[in-house]
Task: structure prediction
Amino acid sequence: MERVIYLDNAATTRTAPEVVDVMLPFFSEHYGNASTVYGLGSKSKEAISKARETIAGILGAKENEIYFTAGGTESDNWALKATAEAYREKGNHIITSKIEHHAILHTCEYLEKNGFEVTYLDVDESGVVKLDQLKAAIRPTTILISIMYANNEIGTIEPVEEIGKIAKEHGILFHTDAVQAFGQVPIDVDALHIDMLSASGHKLNGPKGIGFLYIRKGVKIRSFIHGGAQERKRRAGTENVPGIVGLGKAAELAAATMEERTAKERELRDYMMARVLKEIPFTRVNGSRTSRLANNVNFCFQFIEGESLLIMLDMEGICGSSGSACTSGSLDPSHVLLAIGLPHEIAHGSLRLTLGADTTKEDIDLTIEAVKKIVTQLREMSPLYEDYMKKHV
Result:
């Protein structure tokens, strides 16, 4: 394989060279523990403070509202479990949606087994949460609303500001999983009435194994990991200094390049959608066509299996996915595609392609030609396609 076309940036991204460069000294030169009092440790402490300041500035938050974690999954678990524990006396009801990442859905299932009640909101055919259903679901015992900022599979951006207003009006905490959105769209936590926000470094050309949870001052959730006094006694454990430094740099670069980068991604995304819909029959685009992440394309091709398509694309040197990377081993159709109303047989034929800063028009053209060829091959082997064509041609 001479060339790889990487179109799975929603799963993970290449760590930017500038990020690697700032991380390296903290492995072997400035390796001191940030909790120590001597000079070697203070270098680490200063670097952590700088990263925290950078991220807080991007979100319009305060530095002491940013807590570093091991990634988005930990941040989601912390937000839900610690809120449930801290506000249990007020109530035991949580509202989320049917299209959340499994870090949210499986945490909610865990909480349901421990005495909490969860309402899973429906979404429309574009994947947008139904606000009337949200309002109707609120109870006196509701303590938390957790709705993702943008869906990791179909790219739909949720009406976060409206959800935040509803939560604030009712005195309910609002958490958003912004793992796909942070670095892709401007976010102001005050303007959007967000109380907690999860993000992950490896989705924005930062390192894996690092993320953060924004917790608004005054939100009384407790420690998630117990031990030392790190992260203002809320998240124990020696800090991952190289990871934190890398996350800070990645966030800085993402914010600085956001407007130009997403404009380019949006142009390539729309070009790909238009060509595929025009040139491959029995195809649909999943997710909102207007309120959508700039780098996300999600198709369903009738009469084929998405897994077969992915394997054959890989043989052509093209990396894509059929949904969330966390469920790539599952043979079940995407819960997100089922939630937007697709039948199983169509949901099985899904392909998610997510662009990055390095994606070129040539990459898109080569990918479209490969998809056209492979879909044709797979349909020629499909008895369902053969039966359909006999009946309708």
